[in-house]
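Case study: MFS transporter.
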Amino acid sequence: MEQQSLFRNRTFLFLFIGSFLALIGYSMFFMTTTWFVISDLGSASSLGIILIAITVPRILMMAFGGVLADKFKKTTIMFSTSSIQGVLLVIIFLLNNANQLTFLYLIILGCIFGTLDAFSGPAGTSLIPKIVQKNQIKQANAMIQGLGQIGFIIGPIISGSVMEFGGVTSGYLASSIIVLLSAFFMFPPFLKEGPVVNTIKQTPFKDLIDGFSYVKASRFLMTGILILITLNFFAFGAISIAIPILVETYGGTPINLSYIEVALGIGMIVSTAIIGIIKIRRRGLTSIAGLIATLIVAIAFSQIPNLYVLTALAFLIGFTMTFVFIPFFTSAQEDTDPRIMGRVMSIVFLAMNGFDPLAYASVTLLVSRGFDIQLVILSFSIVGFIIAITILWRGETFRDYKSNY
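Here is what the predicted structure looks like once written out:
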C-alpha cells in the first residue's frame, strides 16, 4: 500500500463520512425516542425499558459481531446494518405518522436496531488497519473518534431543532434519511476492501472461543481491557448518570445540564485532535496516566457544589479519558493478528460499552436507597483510583509497552 495522506485516501474518507453520519443518525434516533416516550406516551418509567431494549442486545451481541467481522467482508456488514437500520427508522416514521407507534412496537424495533449496531461497530474498527498504513492507525482512530464526539453533539441539536418545528414524526424522518445516507457512503464498491483474511471454517462458537483465548493469552490486552472497564464503570459511566442528578441537586436548569454535556464532548474533541497530531510511543503508560488523571478529576467532580466549576471539570474528564482508550485501541489494532482482528475489537468494544449500564444501575440503586450522590461518586472514583495505581505498580508489560509507530 502506497503511503498517502488520510485525506487523500478515498476509502478512508468514505468510511470517515459514513461513520460520522451513522453516529448522527443514531444519536438523533436516541433523542427522538426519548422525547416521544416522555411527551407522547407520557410514561417516564417506560423510557428505561426502551433504552435497555436498545442498548442491552447491542452489548450481548457485540462478541458475535466480531466473529462475523472476521468471516465476511467488513464493508458488506457495515452497509447491510446501516441500510436495515435506515429501513427500521422509516418504518418507525410511518407508524408514528399513522398514529400507530406503540410502546410494544418501539421495544421490538429498538431491540433490532441495537442488535444491528453490535455488528457494525467491530466491523468498522477492524476495517481501519486494512485501509491505512500502520503508522496512520492512531491518526485515523483519533479522527474517527473525534468526529464521533462531534456527531453525538450535533445529532441531538439537529433532532431538537427538527422536532421543535416539525414534531416527533419529522425527527424520525430526518434520522432515517441520515442513516440511509450513511449506508450510501458505506457501499462496498466505494470502500475497496481487500479479501477476507480468516478462511478457517469452524463453528461461530469455536470462533468466539478462539477470540477470548487470544485475548486471555495477551497480558497487554488483558490489562488494557481492565483499564477500559475501570474507566467506564468507576469514572465515565458513574459520572454520566450522576450529572443530571447533580444538576438537579444544585438547583440547575436544563441549560446547565446541556453546558456540562457539551463541555464533556468538547474536552474529548480537543484531546483527540492533540492525539492525532503528536506521536505517542509509550502507549501503555499514557493510558494508565490518563486513567489516573480522569479519576483524580472525578474525585474533584464529586466534591464541588458549583455548576460552573463542574462544567470546567467535565471538560477535563472528557480531555483526560481520551488519552486512556485511543492509545490502547490503536496498539491493539497494530499488534493483533488480522485473522482475529474483528473478535479482539469486539471484546475491546464490550469492555468500553458493556459496563456503562452496570454503572447506571449501580449509581441509581444507591441513590434510591438514600445514599448521597456526591458520596457515591467519590466512592466509585476512589476505588477506581486504587485499581489504576495497582495497574501502574503491577502491570509492567502494559506500562513498559512502546509502539514502533
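For the exam, be able to explain this: Residues 137-185 form the longest helix (49 residues).
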